[in-house]
Design brief:
Layout lengths: L1 E2 L3 H11 L12 E5 L7 E5 L3 H14 L13 H17 L12 H20 L3 H28 L13 E2 L5
Antiparallel strand pairs: 1-4, 2-3
Length: 176
Amino acid sequence: MLLISSFTGRKIYVEWALPDDPEDPTPFTWLSVDESDPEKPIFSGNFLAQTVLATFAHHLTLISTVHANDLRPGNPIGALAMTATAIERAFIAWATGEFIAHGARVDAFSTQWASTTAFYVTDLLAVTEGGWGRIAARANEALEKLNMSRQVEASVQSNPRVASRRSQVIDAADSG
């Protein structure tokens, strides 16, 4: 994964990641976007982008202690939809290249982001079982990477020169 360290780089990435038209695909969720024809980009691997999988893997670590009997059967549509919504919200906060807190009240958040989550739920309802298998396999790979990176982070935590990765937008396009 490549961290984007410049304001301009972050701004350009967010402009690419979030389309102006809400009906257009959101490039940040896709594994690859072939833009050789800018009028007709080809998207492949929805919900397989590294940023989505790394964030989803974090969610999986949080629920790993929940007893299997307490989990609902089926695909984690809601969890992955909320993952994409959280990433979109974060990208909007970085839209200028500099972090700007939202400051919205809870009811305003609920209204705005509930419709965004519903948009992702609609996309996820169309994912085939084979697609969910790919998402699960890639999420498990991301989970293994996350666990390894936590071990590395713990070993360098006392070094004050190591910047928090949360303070920068991650370029998912450079991670395969």
